[in-house]
């Protein structure tokens, strides 16, 4: 099992990445949803000369604009993205038995859909890795306020989980992306601030937090898909 390194209070995002990569002594990949956070992490890693892999989960219900960002990243950085898909038998069974929008009927149904489309593929994506990187930030939601820079992921075999942008705020993130002219999802210009599957994502209203548009019919404390169980 990996040991969690001590992270100085003043550590930068690149410091966190470097400390985590050195600590795991094995393959590390970014779980990329093509958000501003993920794009920023790829840029930071490239700038620091840090070798990380990139994987993505194609749930089958992503927006076209999300695929455009993926294409732009492969073109800009010449990186290989390892795509993982839900098992088609499970998707077919779910949609035949419960329809196309069962996830809006109950929290249990929504968790079932997320498990099939995200959680199970994530398990396959993490196999053989010593660590993984996320774009989670404490500012995102009440479910993420106790986030650590580097933590032990007991639910995924005790590998290390790196959260280099945990203390970045949204203004800081936007400034970084805009100054470097990094690829951005076109939906951001339409009021979307956190983008997941198309049927479960909407633009946010003035005064709402960034993740208010995710599963907007649920209470804030429920707004996780299961990828980041804490």
TrEMBL record:
Amino-acid positions noted as binding [4Fe-4S] cluster in the UniProt annotation, renumbered to this chain: 113-114, 197, 200
User: Principal place where this protein is found?
Assistant: cytoplasm
Cofactor binding comment, as recorded: Binds 1 [4Fe-4S] cluster per subunit.
Recorded metabolic or biological pathway in which this protein acts: Sulfur metabolism; hydrogen sulfide biosynthesis; sulfite from sulfate
One example of the protein's molecular function in GO is: phosphoadenylyl-sulfate reductase (thioredoxin) activity
Question: What does the record give as the reaction this protein catalyses?
Answer: [thioredoxin]-disulfide + sulfite + AMP + 2 H(+) = adenosine 5'-phosphosulfate + [thioredoxin]-dithiol
Keywords in alphabetical order: Cytoplasm, Iron, Iron-sulfur, Metal-binding, Oxidoreductase
InterPro entries according to UniProt: APS_reductase, PAPS/APS_Rdtase, PAPS_reduct_dom
Pfam families, per the entry: PAPS_reduct
- Tagged with keyword Membrane: no
Q: Does the keyword Cytoplasm apply?
A: yes
Give the E.C. number(s): 1.8.4.10
Q: Where in the cell is it found?
A: Cytoplasm
Catalytic residues, per the record, are: 225 (nucleophile)
The residues covered by the Phosphoadenosine phosphosulphate reductase domain are 30-203
Query: What is the role of this chain?
Result: Catalyzes the formation of sulfite from adenosine 5'-phosphosulfate (APS) using thioredoxin as an electron donor.
Entries under PANTHER family matching the protein: 5'-ADENYLYLSULFATE REDUCTASE 1, CHLOROPLASTIC, 5'-ADENYLYLSULFATE REDUCTASE 3, CHLOROPLASTIC
Q: What is this protein called?
A: Adenosine 5'-phosphosulfate reductase
Organism, scientific name: Geomonas diazotrophica
